[in-house]
Amino acid sequence: MSSARQMRSKYMEWAKTCSQAPFNLATSGIMNVPISEFPLSVADLEVTTSASGYGYPPLQERLARHTGAPEECIVVATGTSMANHLAMAAVLKSGDEVLIEEPAYGPLLDVASYLGARVKRISRKFESAFALDSGEIAATMTADTRLIVLTNLHNPSGALLDAETLREIGQMARRAGARVLVDEVYVEMLFDPDAPFSFRIGQALAGSDNPFIATSSLTKLYGLSGLRCGWILAAPDLARRIWLLNDLFGSVAAHSAERMSVMAFDGLEQFRERAKTLLAQNRRLLDDFLDSREDLECFRPPAGTVCFPRLRDDDSEAFVRLLRNEYETSVVPGRFFEMPRHFRLGIGGQTEGLRAGLERLSDALDELGGE
Ligand SMILES: Cc1ncc(COP(=O)(O)O)c(C=O)c1O
Q: Which candidate, 26, 32, 104, places its Cα nearest to that of 346?
């Protein structure tokens, strides 16, 4: 049993205090929607709390439409962050075994550690395009495994988990009496209604409970982080348990934010188009940049806002420091993903800022290489 529980998230501390820069290529979301583009109806805002009960009905209804999941399977949460915490806390107790991908988004590891779970890792290797090997998962699972934790698209690499792999993992988990938490905050960046949404895949598995728990939010793709509109999809019994568990945390949501989230869902097509246009432009800049650099190796993800290049021969720390201090540009150091040769590059910002940031990246790489 773990004695020194993790009570903090080093990545979140870094993100909150060190990631800002004039040229910020560290963020993983699409740039924020300005209020002038938001379909705000002030008359429809309300500063009281919502009526009693679990879930604000208009928001539950929008989420059911958006996800295709029945309302009894939907729990709202304060961003994907709280969604992940609640999902893990509802399934894991101290001493339980959890399998988490490596590299992983730091807070997922931190929450598991905080809950006192025993963490085992399943690898996503650069050499294998960050794919998961279901054989390795089968070999790593034991009778004590309660949960497998994945991201799709993968943070930091952007790699896509396909439906077949997810189905296999779901079946393995079900046989072992475990669940699979898939953080899908990036998967809608495929702009494909047939994207491999894990909860849907779980619903199609014949037999008992859906082994998948999916988490997401309006944060990353839609540029609406400020609303903190997150959700969890889980089998009905588990969803009910999560609602009850949430009574021990925030208990009641900010009702103005719930109402604004309903407005956001009603205008979602506009935000999706905005993101699609921006990402198409920005992706071209990223490809040109990567094509021009022989000193970088990079798996190129099929979609999304992040990629995870590595320096051919070196640790990225000195490079990231130089970039920051001399070129006013931030990226996420690979050490936060347990891979110090790499750094994570985000392309969800405004196009001209990205262009300038990538030029600075090139200049810093040239300086590092002695040119
Ligand atoms: C995989 C992953 N999950 C969750 C989050 C946080 O999402 P939210 O802002 O919805 O809490 C992030 C943010 O970087 C993320 O990369």
A: 26
Q: Are residues 103 and 203 in the same domain?
A: yes
Give the ligand 1 atom nearest the CA of 225.
9
SS3 60: helix
Q: For the domain that residue 316 is a member of, what is the CATH number?
A: 3.90.1150.10
28 lines ligand 1 (CB under 6 A): yes
43-93 pLDDT, tens digit each = 888 888 777 789 999 999 999 999 999 999 999 999 999 999 999 999 999
- Whether 185 lines ligand 1, by a CB cut-off of 6 Å, is yes
Q: Which H/E stretch holds residue 194?
A: none
DSSP string, 89-130: HHH--TT-EEEEEES--HHHHHHHHHTTPEEEEEE--GGGTT
Q: How many distinct structural domains can be found in the chain?
A: 2
Residues 259 and 328 in one domain: no
Q: Is 333 in the pocket of ligand 1 (CB under 6 A)?
A: no
Does residue 371 sit in helix, strand or coil?
coil
Residue 43 lies in a domain: no
Q: Report the predicted TM-score, pTM, of the whole model to 2 decimal places.
A: 0.97
- Same domain? For 108 and 247 the reply is yes
